[in-house]
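Anyone else keep sequences and structure tokens together like this?

Example one:
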Amino acid sequence: GALWMCIVLNPHCKLEQKASWLKQLKKWNSVDVCPWEDGNHGNELPNLTNALPQGANANQENMGQCRSLEYQHLPAHKFLEEGESYLTLAVEVALIGLGQQRIMPDGLYAQEKVCRNEEQLISKLQEIELDDTLVKIFRKQAVFLLEAGPYSGLGEVVHRESVPMHTFAKYLFTSLLPHDAELAYKTALRAMRLLVLESTAPSGDMSRPHHIASVVPNRYPRWFTLSHIESQQCELASTMLTAAKGDVRRLETVLESIQKNIHSSSHIFKLAQDAFKIATLMDSLPDITLLKVSLELGLQ
């Protein structure tokens, strides 16, 4: 949209060109999904938004292509190109939408909707059995999201008030773990952050009262769903602890991530309990490293 705005507002363009663009844009606007690059395939495009189970958008602006997802009613395995089907394309669109960085909206209803819609979409994705083709898509998207710029919620740098990726990362982690454990952990560890709770040194002269008034609201935005978000963060950490049993290096990495990113004492205590339970399962000898993790978290 921004790119088209630049093109259309070009002062050196002739009226005929603008009329032609308007006609083309109107034609594309009548298609349910974005057209192919040469613009000549409008009538051949499948409706990707109907290629997954019914879900919803994590927010209205950034997950529009994920809005209505109903894969049972399409010939999901009709192949478009080699290795591509309506189902694979729809899954990829859903992963792109879920991984986009988006600012937490204002208001209780809008914030609850963000959580609810994301969870609904993920629950529908969980109904799909991953084959080799879909696993490749998951790998590709996970790598892309980790390396992408500011559009990605799993990028190296995100806005302090962007919606956390804990729920999505837990799904990616469990999906990727049997196929690419290194990528699974890298994705989950990147998603553990919860920047809205990080203390930041305010700028300006704090000795004057009017500066304090202007800074404090920005430091503590009103996240009505914060307790739910923190519980999702805790679930992600617990999932990693369970998977890392017996792997000293990974357990230490997960412990460091918990100590750095989780700010709730009750959730840290719950993770200490989880680690102890996982370490002392009846069918095996106690995992010493996990017991140490449990002790460290308990002390913290």
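And example two:
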Amino acid sequence: FLDQGVLIKDLTRLRKRYLCSKLFLWDLVSLLPTDFLYFAFGIETPLVRINRLFRIPRLNEASDRMETRTSYPNTLRITKLMIYIFVLIHWNACLYFAMSNYIGFGDDPWVYPNITDPMFASIRTQYLYCFWFSALIFTTVGDTPVPVREEEYLFMIVELLIAVLVFASVVGNVGNVIMSLRNRDNVFFPNHELVKAYLRSHHVSKELQQRINNWYQHLYINKKIMREYEILQQLPLHIRTEIAVSVHLPTLSKVTIFQSCEKSLLEELVLKLTPQVFSPGEYVCKKGDVGHEMYIIKEGKLAVVADDGVTEFAVLGAGNFFGEISILNIK
């Protein structure tokens, strides 16, 4: 646990804090060996283990921890939602079976058929039938038998109200996940639709529009991220530095003019690096351009060509650089 922001790992303090907390009481009650009551009430009495439900707060705590640690939180949220729905349908199926037992198996078309019938006597058939009936109610995708008794009507009313809440929860959670994915894409990649609208409004040539579309397609296919600063700006400076060192230092250390530099200087330089992505066939710069940047090739190959665009003088690969004259002011 944290004490004034300091992580405490001392077992004595951990034990003392845990024994004095409410969580200890919840855990103790949930772990009581109530299974021995089966000897008194029989194996057909699952309520003797109902104290296990006191572990639900621990389950929620573990779920929150997993969501903060996993690299795929949206996938985890969808998985949790599906598990919750499955458990709810399972509990409802058990309640429907208990309701049928109370009214009498096979007394009317709504309850579970008579278990003396060999077709509906097996435990597996009983569970599958009740689970199917429960799923029909909660998903509202099929016709369920019409209730006959008042108890059945009340049961169905409560079930349909819960089904509405479940449906709203599913739609809301899925909508949040989709919105989160869109926000992630908007941060990771530039907004293509806005650029398209701008090009159309200014009647930019089809050829140039196609080049821009190819560049966007290249970004998405190769998962290139252009807005590193916006993604990492919430992190403290020292953590941003460590991330930049981890991502860019191997590339920077390949550059010959930086190989003899101290590590502290390289760590300062990596914070100044800005990723630039060029799609195949694009020119990085041309003869006569005013240079303001130094380029370091991280991956891919770059050809130095003549004015005709065909004759190749050299091919540069990862670790090569050019444009250093423009920033180092070398005559």
